[in-house]
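INFO batch 0412 | record 1 of 1 | parsing
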Amino acid sequence: MSFVSLGGDAGSKPTFFEVYAADKLVPSLRAAVIYSLSVFGQRRAWVQRLLEREDEVVALVVLLLDRHSLRALEGTFAESLYGLKRERWRPRPGAAAAAAPQQQPAGAAAGCGGGAPLGRGGASLALLCSVLLPYLQSKAERLYTRHAARAGVLGLALRRASPRLPPVRGGAAPGPLAAAWDAALALYVRAYPFLHAAIEASKFSYQLAYLLDASDYNSPMMRLLGQRLVRMSAPDMARLENEKQRARGARLAAVEQRGSRVARGVGRAWLRARFAVADHTSSALILAILEWWYASAEDRLAAGKAIPPPPAPPPPAPHPDGVGLPEDPATCPLCRRARVNPAALAVSGYVFCYPCVFGWVAQRRCCPVTRQPATLDHVRRLFEAL
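INFO prediction complete | emitting tokens
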């Protein structure tokens, strides 16, 4: 299934807008996968647990889709939907200008370079980059978001509100490894914005060069891989379809050579089910992407008409005899560890671990930070929204 009509020769260079649309389909695919999991999670509790590992789930889905697409269509899932494929490309210096007025088929570009099929090695490198790089980028962004609050305005306010913290559990000071880890995190938080800006600037420069027809590569990674995008022609599609049907016919013929009739029937049914899933997976994911797209558009329209909520009142000041606030806002004030299963006290608004605050309120009937009277009915579980 493709968003574009196929035609022209295989060496025709895709426009910037085709390449840009294919790149922007990957975030939509991620959002569609998370949206589908959230819908199924309303009926199946075990699906809800997958949302806690959404980066790994999305990476696995992209791995399966791109692996099948690179083998069958010589391009990633997003690229194949727009009728694009990859080829190995090594331009010859000084020859691109002489070959620019003429449009040649792939691999015969009048001395401007050599195009060749990806091969198994090129497809493996493309698959590794398409799966691993977005996964690492998402993890890096999450790590920065989690620890940037300590260096921000909220972390500064919490440090000023609680200048003297109680000792950590056990009374021991942080060891050298913990201090080195904190220093590395602080350095990472300071360096990440510059590194992210450098990466985005590099991508922008390659996209601008591709838009101005000054480069055959639309991204730095494509240049490092030595690959470029070309349009998939109708003969290419026919060739790939014939190869796919021949491979499927060979597998069905191998199943027919089994001795048992039951084994032959089960083998045929299994292979045909696999073929049907492979043929219709793209259509199902496209429908999920469109459903998420229109649902988010309706939410944006409704949000524009909604009355903005009033500003939140300032939090109550900590009591001098309270437990105090930790330096890290993601840490529980009671156990001094990263919050797990968070819960808030309605009388004060401060967030703790659910087991910690439940036991404290059950015994002392007050907020640990402000010492305001509280009961177990004031303990409210918190859940992260998608």
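INFO post-check: The longest strand covers residues 84-91.
INFO record closed
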